[in-house]
Amino acid sequence: MALNILEWRGIPVPDAVRQRALACADREQLKAWARRAVHAANTEDLFVEG
C-alpha cells in the first residue's frame, strides 16, 4: 500500500525501495510505512522512525 500511496502522490519509487517494501512480511511495519507515505516528501521518509 505504501508504494501505491507514493506513486499516487507522484513520488518516484526507486527499485531498492520497492524491493525492500515487497520483501517485508510484517503487517505492522507495512501499516507504519503506509501511514508515513501519506505525508512523505520522498521515499527515504518511509524508513525514518520516530
Overall SS class: mainly alpha
Number of strands: 0
Order of SSEs: HHH
Low-confidence stretches: none
Give the overall shape.
globular
The largest sheet is: none
Cα gyration radius (Å):
10 Å
Alpha-carbon distance between the two ends:
20 Å
Number of helices: 3
- Helix percent band: 55-70%
**How large a portion of the residues is in β-strands, by DSSP E?**
under 5%
Arithmetic mean of pLDDT: 95
Structural overview:
- With 50 residues, the chain is mainly α.
- It is built from three helices and no strands.
- Helix 1 (2-8) runs parallel beside helix 3.
- The model has no long low-confidence stretch (mean pLDDT 95).
Write the topology of this structure.
Blueprint lengths: L1 H7 L6 H9 L3 H13 L11
Helix pairs in contact: 1-3
In short:
This protein is mostly helical and 50 residues long. 58% of the residues lie in helices and 0% in strands.
Structural features:
0% strand; 3 helices; mainly alpha; globular; 50 residues
